[in-house]
Amino acid sequence: MASLGASPDDEVLEIGPGRGALTRHLVGSVRRLVLVELDNDLAAKWAEEYADRDDVVVVHGDVLATDLSAVLESPEKALVVGNIPYNITSPIIFKLLEPPRPKDVVLMVQSEVADRVAAQVGTKAYGALSVGVRSVARAKRLFGVGRGAFRPVPGVDSAILRITPEHPAPMDTGEEAALRVLVRASFQWRRKQLQKILRDHPDLRVPTDSLDRLAEITEIDLSARPETLSPQVFMRLSAALPRA
Question: Which residues fall within 8 angstroms of residue 52, CB to CB, at 6 or more apart?
Answer without folding.
Answer: none
